[in-house]
Design brief:
The complex is a heterodimer of chains A (about 350) and B (about 280). Chain A is mostly helical and about 350 residues long. Chain A folds into two domains: about 50 residues, no CATH class; about 250 residues, MetI-like fold. In chain A, about 75% of the residues lie in helices and about 0% in strands. Chain A has 16 helices and no strands. Chain B has about 280 residues and is α/β, with parallel strands linked by helices. Chain B starts with a strand and ends with a helix. The chains are: A mainly alpha (about 350), B alpha/beta (about 280). At the A-B interface, helix 11 and helix 12 of A face helix 2, helix 5 and helix 8 of B.
């Protein structure tokens, strides 16, 4: 008999097993969040003082018609059953029919969301490509004229209303100078060509025309997207440059920066390699959130530029009490947020080794 | 032969509430020997060390009558020339590897940065040198450490990596700024003996900055005692116990001794005159 405990050490799970566990955790939290999102939108749908039955059959229907429609919508079922039906519908992409467009909401969203996605993506690329360098340069020379300039440009970005900036942009670059295309995603002539000659793959004009090799339509689309993407990108840049500056100031005061300098590394390397890699860690979240905000669809920008995107769609639906469309749009916006959050979580792990272990 | 000569060094910070003098007229000469600088927090010892590397960030500024390293006037040379000195001939080990190593870079990448950027080494030779550098600081599994991130290393390991990194270019002068203060007591002795061995073998000059007077006394040839930005006493390490200045005596007396009496430790009596 022995009292010495078994010396076999507990084995550390392998790297693959740990990765699998992390991935499973992420997916589980994704599912839980999406379910929560559906729960919230479901109850909002019950609370709003709009009778979904009347919305479908109109106010002049008879009591019998009303009862039949109510049953068809499943509204005679208990609430938990209604929720299950709602979840099933949402999972199969059935958000009902829009009373405004008389088409399934899902079809509408599939048409308007790519327009917003295209705009938001290009705006975010603008914001990142200009905002990060501006913030870094400002942080390396605090108080200098260039720092003041970045601050001023950023402040203007924060404080100028988007519709004003958009209108002035249209007036100057489209109306007077004629450098860019006007409102809308294409000139009307090209719109017909796009409608009939270009197979729909992503719904994003730039990508679909490039895939089809229709470079004349592509160029026209570029001339239309430059200005709204520039306006939105300006806001994104203002935010990203401010955050980059403050993260960078913080990193530059760390000891590992002194280490890099002691090693005789040139200043550009200290800043753009040693510090920036650390700045990217918190910056990923900032960029993801700013991207998500743009994906929600900027109503004002889309209105000024007659951009047929998600923001414009939801707003129009809201004004016409088109609840199916509003709810469908809300779920898409919510899902986009959840998805981008998860993406930034994953990227965060890639950039920061401390978050991995 | 004098390696480093500092005369009347001042480090000043222009702040909103006036000018702060962190170092006020420090002078010393250093050969290929081990010089200790001792003092409490805020005595200016770290600033003295960093001035030699010209690593005082604005709004701080360095003034001195003379600051020469191996005949090179450190006050006159350009930033580019200073950078060449920093990487190659003067190095510094800092207090806490938790903060002084870049958290998002693998150890190997940080360790070999100088070899890659400055000497253009690549491939097998780069790898061989990196392994040799880690073996010199008695790291047993250098391959694993090269691939590790700093947060995956213990404090003692981290500090060995730091020492290895700084000694790769075979500098003539090493500034060690509280190199063991952040480490566990058990690891301190090990890291110190590694540092001591390398400094002796390679015949480097060493500036050892610490608040621990006894440690410095054991480890160095000569000791400067600093107080409020000035050197109040300079003495041979072996004569430490005969220290004249009341501040030095105070520093010696305020350390507990194993087997000593358990009464309260004496605090430091500060006379206004010391600050001069």
């Amino acid at each position: 008999m022995t009292l010495i405990p078994d010396p076999t050490p507990t084995r550390r799970p392998s790297r693959a097993a740990r990765r699998a566990r992390t991935a499973a955790g992420l997916i589980l939290s994704l599912v839980a969040t999406l379910l929560g999102l559906l729960l919230v939108t479901f109850f909002i749908g019950r609370i709003v003082p709009i009778d979904p039955v009347l919305a479908v059959i109109g106010e002049r229907a008879t009591a019998a018609q009303y009862a039949a429609a109510r049953e068809a919508l499943g509204l005679d079922q208990p609430v938990w059953m209604q929720f299950l039906i709602y979840v099933r519908d949402a999972l199969t992409g059935n958000f009902g029919t829009s009373i405004l467009t008389r088409r399934p909401v899902m079809e509408d969203i599939a048409r308007v969301f790519p327009a917003t996605l295209e705009l938001a993506t290009i705006a975010t690329i603008f914001g990142v490509l200009l905002g990060i360098p501006a913030g870094v340069v400002a942080a390396t020379r605090p108080g200098s004229w260039i720092d003041q300039l970045v601050r001023l440009v950023g402040l203007a970005g924060y404080s100028m209303p988007v519709f004003w900036l958009g209108l002035m942009g249209l007036l100057l670059f489209y109306g007077i100078l004629g450098w860019v295309g006007g409102p809308g995603r294409l000139d009307s002539g090209y719109e017909m060509m796009f409608e009939f000659d270009v197979p729909r793959v992503t719904g994003m004009i730039l990508i679909d025309t490039a895939l089809a090799g229709k470079w004349d339509i592509f160029r026209n689309a570029v001339s239309h997207i430059v200005l709204p993407a520039g306006v939105l990108g300006y806001y994104s840049m203002a935010y990203i440059s401010r955050m980059t500056r403050s993260f960078m100031m913080n990193e530059l005061s760390q000891e590992y920066i002194t280490t890099a300098r002691v090693k005789g590394m040139p200043e550009w390397r200290v800043v753009w390699v040693h510090a920036l890699r650390n700045v990217m860690v918190p910056l990923i979240t900032v960029i993801a959130l700013s991207y998500a905000t743009l994906l929600e669809g900027s109503v004002l920008t889309e209105t000024v530029f007659a951009w047929p995107g998600l923001g414009l769609y939801i707003t129009n639906a809201l004004f016409s009490a088109d609840m199916a469309a509003v709810m469908g749009g809300t779920i898409v916006v919510g899902a986009v947020f959840v998805f981008l959050n998860m993406l930034s979580d994953v990227l965060y792990r890639l950039v920061d080794p401390r978050a991995r272990s | 032969m004098t390696l480093l000569s500092v005369k009347d060094l001042y480090v000043t910070f222009r702040t909103e509430s006036g000018i702060v003098e962190a170092v006020r007229g420090v002078s010393f000469d250093l050969g290929r020997e081990r010089l200790g600088i001792v003092g409490e927090s805020g005595s200016g010892k770290t600033m003295t060390g960093r001035s030699v590397l010209r690593l005082i960030r604005p709004p701080g500024r360095i003034d001195a009558v003379e600051m020469t390293f191996d005949g090179i006037d450190l006050l006159k040379i350009s930033e580019r020339q200073m950078r060449a000195l920093r990487g190659k001939r003067i190095a510094m080990v800092m207090q806490d590897p938790k903060y002084s190593l870049n958290p998002v870079m693998r150890v190997g990448e940080q360790l070999t940065e100088g070899l890659r950027r400055r000497d253009g080494l690549r491939g097998a030779e780069l790898h061989r040198k990196a392994i040799a550098a880690l073996e010199a600081v008695q790291i047993r599994d250098p391959e694993r450490v090269l691939r590790a991130y700093p947060h995956e290393l213990s404090g003692g390991m981290g500090q060995r990596v730091m020492i290895a990194m700084m000694l790769i270019p075979q500098p003539d002068l090493l500034i060690a700024d509280e190199p063991t203060s952040a480490l566990d007591v058990t690891v301190q002795a090990e890291v110190l003996s590694i540092l001591d061995g390398l400094v002796r073998d390679r015949g480097m000059g060493l500036i050892f900055i610490s608040h621990d007077l006894r440690l410095v006394g054991r480890f160095c040839d000569r000791v400067l005692v600093m107080y409020k930005g000035r050197v109040v006493e300079e003495l041979e390490a072996k004569h430490l116990m005969q220290a004249q200045h009341p501040y030095t005596q105070g520093l010696l007396n305020c350390l507990p001794r194993i087997g000593g009496d358990r009464g309260p430790l004496p605090g430091l009596d500060r006379a206004a005159a010391w600050a001069g």
